[in-house]
Amino acid sequence: MPVWLREHSWRQTLTAVYLSLPLRGARATPANIFCSERYLKVSIPPFLFEAILYAPIDDTNSTAKIGNGNIFFTLYKKEPAMWDSLTLANAGKEKLQYLRENAVLKAQEKAKEETEAKKITKQEHKKYALEATMKLEEAERKRIEDLKEKERQKVAEELELWKNQQKDADRYKSIQKKGELHHEIEPLKERKNEKMNKTKIPNEGTSKIGLKSTKGCCGSCNIFSQNLKEEQLPAPRAPATVKVNFTPRVFPTALRESRVAEEEEWLHKQAEARRRINSDLSELEDLKEEEKNPDWLKDKGNKMFAMGNYLGAVNAYNLAVRLNDKLPLLYLNRAACHLKLRNLHKAIEDSSKALELLTPPVPDNENARVKAHVRRGTAFCQLELYTEGLQDYEAALKIDPKNKNIEKDAEKIRHLVQETLQSS
């Protein structure tokens, strides 16, 4: 037989009901709690607590917090009103049974709808990812086709230019050959004229003069023919190897494709990290070059945190902090890991250090400052230092007043502070 938990305390406002249920030494988990619009049940064998609520509640936003041997329920009313009692009075067994079964059926239907919605959302995400991938591939294919077309046009233009050059060279050679033939024909005509002069004028003096002139002419003809033999096309160039040397670069990309400002910033960080390593981190000499980069270590810690490896993430952030202790995000992310590992004092220290580095307060670091205040406030509340935690949550609300989640958590902490003051 179950042992019914009868002892409980509750109070209400127009919009919410606050219920405190002692556990009598039992250990509860979220799986032991079931809540719907009108039905509330806590089953921790052998203890059992159930209540048919006086009016409907918003079971989606209502919360339950387990701690200090109690379960604290915050039940938000669907309609603002003051209840006469926590549970429905004068309800028969049949009505109670009907409400209980109806609550279970609604919870099952809701779980089924959520499962279907998640399935549909997952399919839509897959479809969107596939469409985005196809668009990227199509754009890449088009870019490659455009490059090929440009190269094809360039080669065609170069080929056409080469053909025109060959035609011009052939035309020049033909003109040169015609000029050579013209120069060879002229001395032949002169010889014929001299022979005709010899036959027409048999005078000795004139014949001697004619012979001399013919000899001179023949001599000049021989010299010209020798010059023609010597004036031929030059020999082709001797083959050789052309060596091209490029300026060495740290980055694999070409200078025209790089972003100089980012590269200089990266090199500056690398130099600073290398200086720190050479000064006081001699045990890290065996690490690779990228493992000595604080940004690379931060990304590695973020991946480990997402996988649930909080100790590995803390180690990555520790090494990054030793390399560069001026990055506030390293302390902020390490504080989140310490919260998961229940290292609450270290979480408070890292959040405080992040807030020190996030100065001056500007719009660009608002999100980081809100996270730092919330994480430090959460650590304070888990240490039951509700007053300090409330101060951090109120500071986060000043930075981001539209954040409903922080506002709800701050309201809960205010009630805990009031309960602490009343009990003291």
List the helices and strands and how they pair.
Elements: E1 3-4, E2 9-12, E3 16-22, E4 33-35, E5 39-44, E6 47-52, E7 63-67, E8 70-76, H1 93-200, H2 204-230, H3 260-280, H4 294-307, H5 310-323, H6 328-340, H7 344-357, H8 366-382, H9 386-399, H10 404-423
Parallel strand pairs: 1-6
Antiparallel strand pairs: 2-3, 3-8, 4-5, 5-6, 7-8
Helix pairs in contact: 1-2, 4-5, 4-6, 5-6, 6-7, 6-8, 7-8, 8-9, 9-10
What is this structure, in a nutshell?
The protein is an alpha+beta fold and 424 residues long.
Describe this protein's structure.
The chain is an alpha+beta fold. The chain has 3 domains: 3-89, Immunoglobulin-like (Sandwich); 91-182; 292-423, Serine Threonine Protein Phosphatase 5, Tetratricopeptide repeat. The chain has helices at 93-200, 204-230, 260-280, 294-307, 310-323, 328-340, 344-357, 366-382, 386-399, 404-423; strands spanning 3-4, 9-12, 16-22, 33-35, 39-44, 47-52, 63-67, 70-76. The strands form 2 sheets. A 4-stranded mixed sheet has the order 1-6-5-4, covered by helices on one side. Strands 2-3-8-7 form a 4-stranded antiparallel sheet, with no helix packed on it. A hairpin with a 3-residue loop joins strand 4 (33-35) and strand 5. The chain starts with a strand and ends with a helix. The model is unreliable at 200-221 (pLDDT under 50). Pfam families: CS (PF04969).
